[in-house]
Amino acid sequence: MNQQLLFNIQEQFDNYVSQFSLSDPEEQQNIDLKYQHSYQVCNKMKKIIDDMLEGKEAYIAQTIALLHDIGRFKQYQEYKTFADAKSEDHAQLGVSVIKDNDLLATVDPINRELILKAIQYHNKPYLPENESEECLLYTKLIRDADKLDIWRVVLKEYTNQSDNNTVNLGLSTAEKISDAVYQQIMAEEVVKYEDLETISDFKLLQMGWVFDINFGPSFTIIKEKEYIDRLYDTLPKTPATKEIYSKINSYLEQQSR
Ligand SMILES: [Fe+2]
């Protein structure tokens, strides 16, 4: 992997995405949102790996970042949703798209396999078991970079009050917080998507992603961008949300020690 190969893959990625031109402007917005997300995840990835990886390894990490959500375009075109539970696993779909379009033809087979595995694992509830240290490293990196940028995307939606139903996975606007969501966060667990009932639940799930963050630079970005405070600002202030907010802050404090 080198700079030139990454440029070529970026070009092929752009060409691939340009096929997705939808007549409804609101639908096209969702395609554009995922296109921008792909490049923004690359930027976040560069920040995380700055002091950690260089050369070939840094380009592998950036390729994973660029391609991690390539399944989203077909998913949206076919199902008009980003909810995997209502359609199909977008990571698995992405791996098929990469293979069908030969996007990694110029990458040697060992690195190609690593890239595909990290993409496959990027959205799973847990890290894979029985994988190589190298595979785990790239999987953890993409999981961090992805979350850092999703916080940017959702906060933009929440503060514009645009109520993008697709970003909100079609969840209820009721202010209720589900008990299962509360319990998982208080146990420092990442909340399962299947337990979401309301947009507030989804915001709490997003706050709880801190328990699944792996690298120091990611915690620094969370603090700099004030992601947790800004999410909390959009939530109703109830005893449960206050408790969750303080739980998450004390976890973040532990991490920076
Ligand atoms: Fe994804």
TrEMBL record:
Gene3D superfamilies: Hypothetical protein af1432. Residues 34-151 form the HD domain. InterPro entries: HD/PDEase_dom, HD_domain, HDIG_dom. It comes from the Bacteria. It holds the Pfam family HD. CDD domains: HDc. This is Nucleotidyltransferase with HDIG domain. It comes from Halanaerobacter jeridensis.
